[in-house]
Amino acid sequence: MSQPDLRPLPGTQGIDPRGPRFSAGITAVLLAVDLVLGLVGLQLAAWILLVVIAVLFLWGAVAGVQKHPYGALYRAALRPRLAPPAELEDPAPPTFAQLVGLIITGLGVILGIWFPVIVVIAAALAFVAAFLNSVFGYCLGCQIYLLLVRAGLIRRGTGTAA
What is the pLDDT of residue 41? Predict the structure, then answer.
C-alpha cells in the first residue's frame, strides 16, 4: 500500500507538518490531565477541562490549523529555531482531524452531563489519537479524511461533500 499523499494542492499554501504534531503533544498532555482528574473522582474538573479542549478543537475545525493558538505558538516559539521542513503538508487533513477531535470531545461533554464516566472515555479516545500523532506522526483524523476522499464522500482540500 502506498503512502497517502498529504502534499498541498497546487495553488494552496502548505503547513509545516511538525506544527500539528506539536499541537497534538499539547493536546495529549491536556487530555492526560483530564483522564487523571476523572479517574481520581474530580468529575466536574474533568468535565470543565474537556469543555476547554472541545472549544480548542472547535477553533481548529472552524478556523483551520493555521489559525489555531497552538499553531501560532509553534510558529513563534519553535519554528524559527528549526531547519525548514523537508516538505509542506496540506492543511485540510489536520483541520479535518480537529473536527474528529471535536466530535469525540463534544460527545463526551454532552453525554458527560448525565453519565460522568463518558468524560473519561472520550478523553481516553482523544488521548490515544493525540498521542499517536504527537509521538509517532500518525494522525488518525487525517487517515479518516483520506479514506473519505478516496470513497468520494468529500473533495480533497475543501472538506465539502462531493
Answer: 86
